[in-house]
Amino acid sequence: MRIAKITATTVTTAALALGLAACGGAEAPAEPSAAASASASGPKYSGKELTFWRLGDSNPAAQKYTDELVAAFEQQTGAKVKVEWIPWPQVNDKFTAAAAGGTGPDVTEIGNDQVPLWQSQEALAPISDIVAAGDQAQIPKNLLGLETIDGETYAVPWGGGSRAVLYRADWFKDLKIEIPKTWDELVAAAKKIQEKKGKDVDGFAFNGGSDANHLLGSLAWTAGGEYAVKEGDKWVGKLTDPAFKTGFEQYTALVTDGLSSKSRLGQNTTEIRTRFANNKVGMYLTASWDLPGIDEDSKGKLKGDKLAFFPLPAKDGGEAQSFLGGNDIAVWGTAKEMDAAKDFVKLASGKEWGVKYATDGGLLPVYPEALAKLAEDPAQAPFAAAFAKAKAFPADPNWTEANETKAVLQNAARQVIEGKATADEALGKANTELENILNQS
């Protein structure tokens, strides 16, 4: 997921838009000390040079972090590190050319949902030994779902992102609505918003676009469901299991129960954001990166204490599971300096530099202690709570085809909502299609 585009400046702006100081309740991580991590054996990679790909734009915060990390590694090991910045629009072409030509960096930043694809192209080296010991062993296993394939780990989580419910805090105040703690309370809040603000307003917006599974997945996972599981060398679909069906029916009920209009079945988060900015949505699932766009689309009318977030509630209370977004760091499969590359990844993803990468970049740290501190900040708490339970889609390079190109679950939901199939019929057909896609070679 291309979370790295959300810079520290963006997140600070988002927090200020809520009338809060970004990371106000969290202690700033101490500046990592190169001397503290220096190798007792001295500069073991003198004369070696690594190439490190960083993705996105070299904004001041990202550049400062990278310069300090590189300086620490060079002092510790004697190696030199050449940093190349790859703008996000060029990443796919750059990776494709490197994988096809047997070239590429020694170390690269990578979106976590891209790990299965590039692992399938043999573009990433296994680094299970790194996550099995040291600081990295403290990273919760649920955060390694996209990085671990057939028992091997191919990237280390570096910084994460999650989603929560953005809502009209001013409407909640005017209508005397309490923050929903259960799914039934969320539904009741949505209905009250529609009753008072008009039938054309979505109380809670249904997302049926390319990012629909961020909402559906949260509901299905929380109910105990799975999209598919790997049994031997085959993916077995689980869409027909009762638990997945429970979440799926919650999802489709947003429309069939009238909380969101049937005329907008295909809208995605960007389209929902525009309607939200124009007073047509009371709540929807997103993250703080939508706030600058809402400010712009509303011509400055929606900001400050008019907006806030709360965690998507589970049916019976507590936080629902969130989709796991984020950025990783990995060793390229054809790294010329493999040992040095692994040591660089070990340093960068350790607790000191890993926490600093996340907090400096406006992301969520993957280490539990640092995430708990971030949860003390009211602006970040809903995302920290969601991220602590975050989960990934099936770690298969064909998932993108099922999710976006073929829109398997979106089509199943549409069939049910339009009355063309029952949930059992739609999920049965979708299950077969999902298995065929995930198991194609």
From TrEMBL:
GO terms for cellular component: ATP-binding cassette (ABC) transporter complex, substrate-binding subunit-containing
Leader sequence residues: 1-28
GO biological process: maltodextrin transmembrane transport; maltose transport
Claim: Zinc-finger is one of the keywords in the record: no
Cytoplasm as UniProt keyword: no
This protein's UniProt keywords: Signal, Transport
InterPro entries named in the record: SBP
Pfam families in the record: SBP_bac_1
Family from the record: Belongs to the bacterial solute-binding protein 1 family.
Record-given protein name: Sugar ABC transporter substrate-binding protein
Organism: Nonomuraea glycinis
